Amino acid sequence: MNTMKILGRTGDTEVKWDPETGYGIKTARRLFDEKTQRGRYLAFIEGPGGDGVTMLRHFDPNAQSIILAPRLIGG
Amino acid sequence: MILARSRARFRKRVRRHLERIGRLFPHRTERDLFSRSVRYFERINFAGQPVDLVPDAASRERAAALLSARLTSGQRRCLRRRGFFTVIGSSGRRFRIWARRSLPVELADDTSLRRYSGPRLYCVTTDVSEEGGILPLADYLLELKLCLEADEEYFLLTSNPNFEQGRLEKNQILLRRKGSA
After folding, report:
1. Structure pTM?
2. ipTM score
């Protein structure tokens, strides 16, 4: 199962989906689009073992682990 | 035969006893990750805030576990003992991420000429206006780490540096992006 973690006040909320059976992809995609629209959240995709982090613009159902975090602003 | 059986029984009893102790005193990742002073200053930050905006103990613990899983043992040790961990940005420069809310990122690279003698810090925070609460410190540090590793230029554009060279670099990136657009 691939996972997406949404960071927030209550720690992280986990959303899971299975790219082979298609279970949960619709919900994960909807949440991803909701959160990342207008750049409100940043999406990071991690390689196996947490290596090779890149930013994600569109939802990728084959991504092993996605982390959504609120956008950064200058302090 | 009798001796082996009694040994097994003894081991079983010890295991049960340890499980009972573990239930009474569960493992606290937040305590392993942050020193006492970091946790104290974090509590002071939250002192004047409304309760429903502040992350509770369970959230902080979950955030600490998430960060801990993404740090190396050296980074975890450094964070606990010295209050920061080092991250290599996407351009290859080294940054220190301090466990605090204000000015959390420091440029630790010495390849460029250093006119400014103080620490070269970047001020950045998370926009939680949509979320309606404060992100736990561990989640905040994790986001900074991921952002630096994934897209250092985005971080430099977003943050406010406290040194001249950083401001010049930010302006150069802005001009370059404007030119390419």
Report:
1. 0.85
2. 0.92
